[in-house]
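Appendix C reproduces, verbatim, an entry submitted by the partner laboratory led by Prof. M.T., so that reviewers can inspect both the input and the predicted structure.
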Amino acid sequence: MRHRPSASDEQNHRSDDLFRARLDQIIRSDHLLARRADAMPWDSIVEQVADLLPRTREGAGASLPVRMTVGLLSLKYAYNLSDDQVLERWLESPYMQYFTGEVYFQDELPW
């Protein structure tokens, strides 16, 4: 079961973010994935795709954000990667994380 953060945990997390560099501040804006991420109509994509994705049962854990799900699938097929390979690359690449909507670099999978 996934730990649900308390109000104090969330406050600590927000204050920790003050000392972290945002991905958009550390990546090159002319990189292919950064340009594509900025050009994608994410709001429209999320709106069109959200109802097509399976919903999780209450208490079964949170589903991934739609942008992350669509972004990971796009990266998987664009780079011809397996599920495991795209997740491994996502953990290593700030550009892939930026493409999927992350704000700060993540060193763990979001589930």
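Helices lie at 7-17, 23-26, 32-39, 42-49, 66-78, 83-92, 94-99. Additional entries are available on request from the coordinating office.
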